[in-house]
Amino acid sequence: MTANVLWIAFALPACSTHDRMQDEKITKLQQAVAMLQTDNTQLRRQLDELGSENPSLRTVEDPTMVSYRPKLSAPPPMATNIAVREPVDPQAAVIERAFRGGINAVRTGNSEAGIPELLKFAEQYPGDRRAAEALFSAATARLVRGEVEGAAALFQRVVARYPSSDWGPNAMLRLGECQMRLKKSADANANWKQLIERYPASEAAGAARGLLKGKSP
Question: Which of 96, 107, 169, 192 has its CA 20 to 30 A from that of 210?
């Protein structure tokens, strides 16, 4: 009995000391929380003042966090009507003008100026895809002018230089017509037969068959 009383007597002061320390800790924590709340209130007030001056800033709903977020705006519309142009080769433009100048001249009846331009084009640019057309057009213009021998020479040049072009069969057809005008019917018939053999599926070959039978194309 005496021992229990003594133990209680010693334990009570210890418990009292422990409780007092716990109370002090709680009080300090409460004070710290109060200070944080005060600071947070001041920060929110400052942020509200800034927000009234700049609407692009706003607060986050979490009372313990403060954040600034810039106002996002839609990007400006992009232009969609910009024309896309291929780069122009200056030399190609010069060649095109030279060809078109001669072609337009003979088509409008100015063969006196057009024929030399077309012949010059064919000689300067023999590898151009339009060289055969230039020679053929010059030959046709000569034939229209009544220069049959000169036209025949140019048609023959087309056949010799550009047999694989689209103008080759037509040049052979016209060459035969020139030979007929020059009273060289045997040469014309031989030329048309050769045309049919070389280009059997071409329209010129069909016209040559009609001419060989004594019919117009």
Answer: 107
Residue-wise DSSP of 77-139: PPP--PPP-PPPPHHHHHHHHHHHHHHHHHHTT-HHHHHHHHHHHHHH-TTSTTHHHHHHHHH
DSSP string, 164-217: TSTHHHHHHHHHHHHHHHTT-HHHHHHHHHHHHHH-TTSHHHHHHHHHHTT---
For 199, the token pair is 């280009």
What single-letter amino acid sits at 39? D
Question: Which residue in 186, 168, 106, 190 sits closest to 143, CA to CA?
Answer: 106
Structure tokens at 61: 């709903």
What does the alpha-carbon distance between residue 57 and residue 31 come to, in Å, rounded to a whole number? Answer: 31
pLDDT tens for the chain, 217 residues: list them.
554 544 444 444 555 566 677 777 777 767 666 666 666 666 666 667 666 665 555 544 454 444 445 555 666 665 555 554 555 577 888 899 999 999 999 999 999 999 999 999 999 999 999 999 999 999 999 999 999 999 999 999 999 999 999 999 999 999 999 999 999 999 999 999 999 999 999 999 999 999 998 755 4
Contacts of 185 (CB under 8 A, 6+ apart): 179
